[in-house]
Amino acid sequence: MTQRLAVVSGGIGGIGTQICRRLAEAGHRVVATDLGGDPERVDAFLDGLAGLPVAFEPGDVGDADDCERLIADIGTRHRPVDVLVNAAGITRDARLVKMERAQWDDVLRINLDAVFHLCRAVVPGMSERGFGRIVNISSVNAQTGQFGQTNYAAAKAGMHGFTMSLAREVARHGVTVNCVAPGYVDTDMTRAMRSDIRDQIVAAIPVGRVGSPDDIARVVSFLCEQDAGYITGALLPVNGGMFMSF
Ligand code: CAA
């Protein structure tokens, strides 16, 4: 089997780390990217995946120039990118009337602009080589909206339109572009919520529990397989039944 190179943004986050693990176990060489400001966090990440072909390259995905630099550096130090998983994401929850401009801008920049920057950097090479897999990590809250998340839901819903449009543009070049939309997953992001609000949300999940990072990672890994080439422009909900639609 050809060993592909996969880049995971937000790679040392809760869901990102598990995506790195699954992709590496599936035979990819993996480069996680994230802010590199906390060396202890990076070391803990790499130690946790010791023995797997996973490297770390620091980058600020909210910065267009840094995204270009990052993808060029990965091409030189490792090999060209075959698989891109956009898992970098932040929340800055507040009701609209209380939301500061910076809370809007930061969420749109990291959760949506970054997807444009990274895809812009990898898509020409993927198209030229005739193979690519792009998976964008969205959210159930893009489908339902959520109290206090006008910024986050707008960014993630924007990701859906972006995904379908890009999927059409690159389908003939062997590149697929899909979204995975997690529900509430056990990560620092959901742990940071007010516990009474989180408990109320979790109580309403049909499956009866929050998701695990691996619930998400295994679906991402499936979409990145060579044989998943007929799935493109799709949104796969992985939300324990929180939102059902067809
Ligand atoms: N539904 C209805 N009313 C709500 C509410 C809710 N979820 N949350 C707060 N309110 C009401 C309060 O009852 C209160 O009403 P009164 O003034 O009539 O008493 C009023 O709103 C308080 O307003 P505040 O602006 O002061 O709200 P707050 O600071 O207490 O809480 C919030 C705001 C932090 C955004 C809170 O609503 C909240 O945590 N919402 C959920 C956000 C959420 O789900 N985030 C997910 C993070 S994880 C993630 O995003 C991953 C993923 O993809 C799923």
From TrEMBL:
EC number(s) on file: 1.1.1.36
Annotated Ketoreductase domain residues: 4-183
GO molecular function: acetoacetyl-CoA reductase activity
One BP annotation, GO: poly-hydroxybutyrate biosynthetic process
Key word Oxidoreductase present: yes
InterPro entries listed in its UniProt record: Acetoacetyl-CoA_reductase, KR_dom, NAD(P)-bd_dom_sf, Sc_DH/Rdtase_CS, SDR, SDR_fam
GO cellular component: cytoplasm
Record keywords: Oxidoreductase
Domain of life, source organism: Bacteria
Family matches, as PANTHER family: 3-OXOACYL-(ACYL-CARRIER-PROTEIN) REDUCTASE (PTHR42879), 3-OXOACYL-[ACYL-CARRIER-PROTEIN] REDUCTASE FABG (PTHR42879:SF2)
Family: Belongs to the short-chain dehydrogenases/reductases (SDR) family.
Protein's recorded name: Acetoacetyl-CoA reductase
Lineage start: Bacteria, Pseudomonadati, Pseudomonadota, Gammaproteobacteria, Lysobacterales
